[in-house]
Amino acid sequence: VEVKIEVVIPEKERSKEEMSPNGKASPLIYKVNGTARHYHLEEHPVASNPYHNPKDVVEASVCHVKDLENGQMREVDLGCGKALLIKESGEFHAMGHKCPHYGAPLVKGVLSKGRVRCPWHGACFNISTGDIEDFPGLDSLPRFQVKIEKEKVYIRASKQALQTQRRTKMMAKCISLSNYNLSSTNVLIIGAGAAGLVCAETLRQEGFSDRIVMCTMDRHLPYDRPKLSKSMDSHPEQIALRPKEFFCTYDIEVLTEMQVAAVDVKSKIAVFKDGFKMEYNKLLIATGNTPKTLSCKGKEMENVFNIRTPEDANRVVKLATSKNVVIVGASFLGMEVAAYLAERAHSVSLVELEHVPFKKFFGERVGRAVMKMFENNRVKFYMQTEVSELREQEGKLKEVVLKSGKVLRADVCVVGVGAVPATGFLKQSGINIDSKGFIVVNKMMQTNIPGVFAAGDAVTFPLALRNNKKVNVPHWQMAHMHGRIAALNMLAHGTEISTVPYLWTAMFGKSIRYAGHGEGFDDVVIQGDLDELKFVAFYTKSDEVVAVASMNYDPIVSKVAEVLAAGRTIRKRDVEAFPWAPWETPHCTVVFLSFRTGDMSWLTGKGS
């Protein structure tokens, strides 16, 4: 049996071929809260044959149908590019083989119930359509058609699709942008991070053709904020989430260096700091958080930084090269900055109140292992103390004085002591804010005010994974999902959020991956070798596994994420039952069969 793979246009894109007599896409009707609105799909000509250019087509035999069992994936080479071949429930599927987010090989990911989860950062893709179903990342995968002839598998695909390995979903455009009042918009998005951008894109993907305005205090278009501490010398254009042309093409307006000072929810008006006012119909608040600053003497002097923008990160790298750096706070940001600067600076010192980094998040044992890795890379820790004074010489930082009495030489100081939600401008708005300043939303990302939604780091929302407990999850992946759910419910879809938190941190070329929500964990079950930095840590509360972290054990975190996403419970006794890593044993199938009654199939590579 041969399997052939051809690029297939998804249903939403195929509708573009239903042309009106004037050669343009026929106008469709979209109802928003009962109001009929017309919209056009993006008007690019689409040929009925996706392979209208024979020179752009490649076809190759890749395997025999019996070469793949159900539930298996294989990366296949077509000569000018690769595809991911999948067999599930007796059917073959094929699509791009790299995750569009950071290029992870999806063949090393997790296949479960019609979707593939990325082994690195947890993004999920539907194997039938290639559409992205969970984040991070913005693009979907190209999907290729599979045909079987004479028990062989063939792939026929566009060379361009094989090379790009990504697909932007169909989007609508604004019908008559020129007719709008500049001080009025249908959708106003305050904040241009992941949540805001995904909200805007989702609205367009769902056919929304009215005006969308995003505003941000930043001077740049939306960018990959996690890279500010992981790749500090990146320039804004290198980490942009979308090019400028994208926003022009899909009529998503972005107002940069614009700060909202107040919101009048009764009149549906946002008031900007410069006095400009904008009316809205739907509002998304995705303002993120504001870094905490030091409260000691000298905190305002030159060369003391909170990493908030690409310029901040670039400036720190330039000033720190061959100089003395002090980092205050062993947070994710603080630790990532320390790791990045360790090889560039003359010295890196890290000051922290706790006695172990990441203790509250990863637990003491994992924290100590990470601390040892940093010490082996010339980072000096000063634990269980804090800064009492910053001393200057000729207006520039010279020394950091600790409450312990220690004085550290410092040319640069980076502060990473946490953040607070950027919601101060909402205090008199009537929008429900909790005691910590977080915006309270429901499962549809709606606030207590009709038509007002909130998303990202500034919200608390019901997490299904923890019995709908209201939590704040300031993760990049979660911000993406918040934005999508908010957009769908602006369009009255009634969609509730149901996703597993997923994050990662990168230090010295190694990554810790994490899934779940371990807040309040009471025990940690560790398998593997912490000294070798090859381990899996299961975080438990009572008898239930609530989160997992790993280093050098891909794709275990993605496997656990899929189990939790399916609503299944992993018991503490289940993970304690394995004093070895069953996914690495040579007789994995035997292990699976032996423990099948314990429902441990999710851990094994075979039989699951």
TrEMBL record:
<protein>
    <recommendedName>
        <fullName>Apoptosis-inducing factor 3</fullName>
    </recommendedName>
</protein>
<dbReference type="InterPro" id="IPR036188">
    <property type="entry name" value="FAD/NAD-bd_sf"/>
</dbReference>
<dbReference type="InterPro" id="IPR028202">
    <property type="entry name" value="Reductase_C"/>
</dbReference>
<keyword id="KW-0001">2Fe-2S</keyword>
<dbReference type="InterPro" id="IPR050446">
    <property type="entry name" value="FAD-oxidoreductase/Apoptosis"/>
</dbReference>
<keyword id="KW-0560">Oxidoreductase</keyword>
<dbReference type="InterPro" id="IPR036922">
    <property type="entry name" value="Rieske_2Fe-2S_sf"/>
</dbReference>
<dbReference type="GO" id="GO:0097194">
    <property type="term" value="P:execution phase of apoptosis"/>
</dbReference>
<dbReference type="GO" id="GO:0051537">
    <property type="term" value="F:2 iron, 2 sulfur cluster binding"/>
</dbReference>
<dbReference type="Pfam" id="PF07992">
    <property type="entry name" value="Pyr_redox_2"/>
</dbReference>
<dbReference type="Pfam" id="PF14759">
    <property type="entry name" value="Reductase_C"/>
</dbReference>
<comment type="function">
    <text>Induces apoptosis through a caspase dependent pathway. Reduces mitochondrial membrane potential.</text>
</comment>
<keyword id="KW-0053">Apoptosis</keyword>
<feature type="domain" description="Rieske">
    <location>
        <begin position="60"/>
        <end position="155"/>
    </location>
</feature>
<keyword id="KW-0274">FAD</keyword>
<keyword id="KW-0479">Metal-binding</keyword>
<keyword id="KW-0408">Iron</keyword>
<keyword id="KW-0249">Electron transport</keyword>
<keyword id="KW-0411">Iron-sulfur</keyword>
<keyword id="KW-0813">Transport</keyword>
<dbReference type="GO" id="GO:0016651">
    <property type="term" value="F:oxidoreductase activity, acting on NAD(P)H"/>
</dbReference>
<dbReference type="InterPro" id="IPR016156">
    <property type="entry name" value="FAD/NAD-linked_Rdtase_dimer_sf"/>
</dbReference>
<dbReference type="GO" id="GO:0005739">
    <property type="term" value="C:mitochondrion"/>
</dbReference>
<comment type="similarity">
    <text>Belongs to the FAD-dependent oxidoreductase family.</text>
</comment>
<keyword id="KW-0285">Flavoprotein</keyword>
<keyword id="KW-0496">Mitochondrion</keyword>
<dbReference type="Pfam" id="PF00355">
    <property type="entry name" value="Rieske"/>
</dbReference>
<dbReference type="InterPro" id="IPR023753">
    <property type="entry name" value="FAD/NAD-binding_dom"/>
</dbReference>
<dbReference type="InterPro" id="IPR017941">
    <property type="entry name" value="Rieske_2Fe-2S"/>
</dbReference>
<dbReference type="GO" id="GO:0046872">
    <property type="term" value="F:metal ion binding"/>
</dbReference>
